[in-house]
Design a protein that fits this description.
alpha+beta
Length: 354
């Protein structure tokens, strides 16, 4: 059974990720929100630490890590900046799909630019009508000689922006079933439609895509005739990273409100001195520790190749639900400052306390 404890290398990676967030992301205080261009620059700073290639083998320019290492980086990054963590999550899921389905030539051509972060990795699955139901895809695939053509609409595609080179792991409806293809954002017939703006995710480069006979090389067609079970390995990894991101965000909530509760005085003493509030923060800390143990165990099973689809679905449900509870508790505990504490945060280095 995989261990629930981090090994020495994973502990070193966590410390390095924490230090990276302190030095690069938060050295000048909070990053301005809502600036898509600045976020893209910040994302490219991640390549100095090797995070965009953490799942890619070293012989292809990556770091040769697994899902456990990716989850650690996502968690620490989400503690500092959830929007940047979401961008890295999308990039990593794209690279994971190529690792699963690309043949030797395709992998050698497509993975090194993703490892170097020359190209932003994106996943084009969701559609206006079908949602994320990959059994009901509407975007069609047609093959004509040495070229393939995709026609349809995709929505909520993270890591797409005007003037940026993105590589899309696109799921299409082929003549034999589900097909996976790698499509460059500069392909003829691919158009960025409106940009989505999400409350609380300011600056996230996320767009709707229109594919009008979008042409791409037949050599970028990764797999055809896939069924649901063929996709589970990829989406299990994605579920793990979503849970890791939620865990990092929950930690940020607890750290912020704990600091505030130690500073804010009410009734002649600090908020943390009121037993009822202390109990609530203890419940939050207990939930976060449960997240950490569950994440490490699930990542170990995924890296070992053990069947764990149901466990990962339950983990994602558990962690995201607890995040909602912890965030709501943090807002309540902060009272009138509940929606303004973000601007009061200190740099990430001071908040870690390691």
């Amino acid at each position: 059974m995989p261990s629930c404890e981090e090994n020495d290398l994973q502990s070193m990676l966590r410390a390095q990720a924490c230090d990276f967030c302190a030095r690069i992301l938060k050295e000048d205080g909070l990053m301005p929100q809502g600036d898509e261009g600045l976020l893209l620059l910040r994302f490219r700073a991640l390549k100095g630490a090797g995070y965009p290639g953490i799942l890619i083998p070293t012989e292809m320019g990556g770091e040769g890590g697994g899902w456990a290492e990716a989850a650690i980086v996502i968690e620490e990054l989400a503690l500092a900046d959830p929007v940047l963590a979401m961008m890295l999550l999308s990039h990593l899921v794209c690279t994971a799909g190529l690792l699963l389905w690309a043949d030797g030539r395709q992998a050698a051509d497509l993975l090194p630019p993703l490892a170097r972060c020359d190209v932003l990795g994106a996943v084009a699955l969701t559609e206006p009508e079908a949602g994320t139901d990959f059994a009901d895809l509407r975007t069609s695939l047609e093959r004509k000689g040495e070229a393939c053509y995709a026609s349809g609409n995709k929505c909520f595609v993270t890591n797409t922006a005007p003037g940026e080179e993105s590589g899309l792991l696109a799921f299409l409806k082929g003549p034999e079933g589900i097909a996976a293809a790698y499509i460059s954002s500069s392909s003829p017939g691919l158009h960025l439609a409106h940009r989505y703006r999400f409350s609380g995710w300011e600056g996230l480069p996320n767009h709707a895509l229109v594919l009008q006979d979008c042409a791409f090389p037949a050599g970028n067609l990764l797999r055809e005739g896939m069924v649901r079970d063929d996709l589970l390995s990829l989406f299990d990894g994605a579920a793990l990273l979503v849970a890791a991101m939620a865990a990092g965000m929950a930690r940020a909530c607890l750290e912020t409100v704990s600091r505030y509760a130690g500073e804010r005085r009410q009734g002649g003493r600090a908020l943390a001195g009121h037993q009822a509030l202390y109990f609530r923060m203890s419940d939050m800390a207990t939930s976060i520790e449960s997240m950490k143990i569950s994440l490490q165990a699930a990542a170990g099973r995924l890296d070992a190749g053990d069947p764990c689809h149901c466990e990962l679905c339950m983990l994602k449900l558990f962690v995201s639900g607890k995040l909602e509870e912890i965030a709501s508790s943090a807002v309540e505990l902060a009272g009138g400052y509940g929606y303004t504490l973000k601007r009061r945060q200190r740099p990430h280095r001071e908040r870690q306390g390691r």
